């Protein structure tokens, strides 16, 4: 089928032949299919979906668009974690050194900010000198010798997804279940892992805002992994408010370091420990999540997890002194507080609105070629369930450019809801699937 015919068929709700899917994605990867036609097909998929056969063909075509790595020279079970994206989600920055310190090799290929959510690569690059553009040879060497490596997609690993990832970000086709599932699994299966832990976010700051959608996405990815002989476990975790207190690249690095010192916010610490514990179980380093948690707490207490983070930073060209001296990280030139208009409690936070405010401030991308300011972002001084007085600061804005400041402050104030009653608490770990 020609590209036009494929787009029209999906637009009209017809199933696509697997061979035509493979040919279309291969042609897009080569540059023979332009962005506007891929955008049209993605929008058709957004509205019409993909059945199991189509999704399997789409994922395999993405996976086989480039090299599939073999990390068999690294001893042990290689385990990665992937989050579907949230606001303030800096879990990978602390999870990778924690798992590696406990003996689980972590080959991690991460992404940049997408839509209203932050990106692991952007956060890592706020560490002076940190390189995420390493060669495949360096990636293999660091997984073997250091125990972890966090890089972006290379030109040879799932190149179809690398092109499509950026395109979806600017064409309103990010929050589409089959496109999310195929993007994640093609990338992860290409990186040489044996097992995968999924952090599927659900709530106002997630792409999956309803529990049933998050559960469906998790099951879809577990099935894709099983079809390709990979063990996959998923945790559905709450994203009805930002995770932790920091939103913004360098600010989130600070909070990730504090987690490895045992001094981070409770919600961020809990989600990180739960996900890393699943990695230790899949990696054969613990029999149960509870036993794994004990290993992780020891790695924090004895400093081995923090030392592993410094080792990763140094191995990837970064300045390990920034882990001890936060003044070496990018710093915003000024701060401005957003204050509560009434007395009471924070009853809700529109987390997607907070993420979009961060993009407006410069912490994320409005276009594919937008430059990110690594220093800017927010500190959430009050979160859901916490008391406030009228005129008391609820969010501190760290900024360099005053241009978007008024708009950002208005967005943040609109994102917060206040009331007289303490809202019911929500579980951080909503569900576990395997």
TrEMBL record:
Catalytic activity: thymidine + phosphate = 2-deoxy-alpha-D-ribose 1-phosphate + thymine
Matches recorded under SMART domains: PYNP_C (SM00941)
GO molecular function: 1,4-alpha-oligoglucan phosphorylase activity; thymidine phosphorylase activity
InterPro entries linked: Glycosyl_Trfase_fam3, Glycosyl_Trfase_fam3_N_dom, Glycosyl_Trfase_fam3_N_dom_sf, Nuc_phospho_transferase, PYNP-like_C_sf, PYNP_C, Pyrmidine_PPas_bac/euk, Pyrmidine_PPase_CS
Top-level class of the enzyme under EC nomenclature: transferase
GO CC annotation, single: cytosol
Tagged with keyword Cell inner membrane: no
Keyword line: Glycosyltransferase, Transferase
Domain Pyrimidine nucleoside phosphorylase C-terminal: 345-419
Presence of keyword Nucleus: no
Entry EC number(s): 2.4.2.4
GO biological process, one term: pyrimidine nucleobase metabolic process
Sequence similarity: Belongs to the thymidine/pyrimidine-nucleoside phosphorylase family.
Description of how the protein assembles with itself and partners: Homodimer.
UniProt protein name: thymidine phosphorylase
Species of provenance: Stigmatella aurantiaca (strain DW4/3-1)
Source organism phylogeny: Bacteria, Pseudomonadati, Myxococcota, Myxococcia, Myxococcales
Name of the coding gene: pdp
